[in-house]
Every structure is written in C-alpha cells, then in structure tokens.
Design a protein that fits this description.
Length: about 60
C-alpha cells in the first residue's frame, strides 16, 4: 500500500468522523506499520475503509 493510498484513507476516515486531518507524521507511521507488518492503532481503520470502498464499488457494478 502506498503512502498516497494511506493518506487518502486517513482523510476519508477523518471526514466521516468530522475530525481534523491526520498529520503527515501519522500517515508515515501507518505506512511504516504496513511495510514492516507491525502494529499501529490506525492500521485496522485503514483496512476497514478499504473494504468499505471495495464493497461500494461492487454494489455500483450490480
């Protein structure tokens, strides 16, 4: 997963929760957690947001 993809997902998460955007350092931390297969508390939120996005695309294709 690229840094841009993670940034986009975190922006989407922040907007859905009416929260400020995440700092770039947080985006980089999440990116490193994906690259190194380590824990970060936002990693699961990013994965869940990706799943929602895929499901929405599948629904649109029906």
């Amino acid at each position: 997963m690229t840094l841009s993809e993670i940034k986009f997902r975190l922006i989407t998460i922040a907007e859905k929760r009416n929260r400020p955007y995440f700092d770039m350092i947080v985006v980089k931390e999440v990116h490193e957690a994906f690259k190194n297969n380590t824990y970060h508390e936002l990693k699961n939120y990013v994965l869940a947001e990706m799943e929602v996005s895929v499901l929405n695309m599948v629904e649109l294709g029906r």
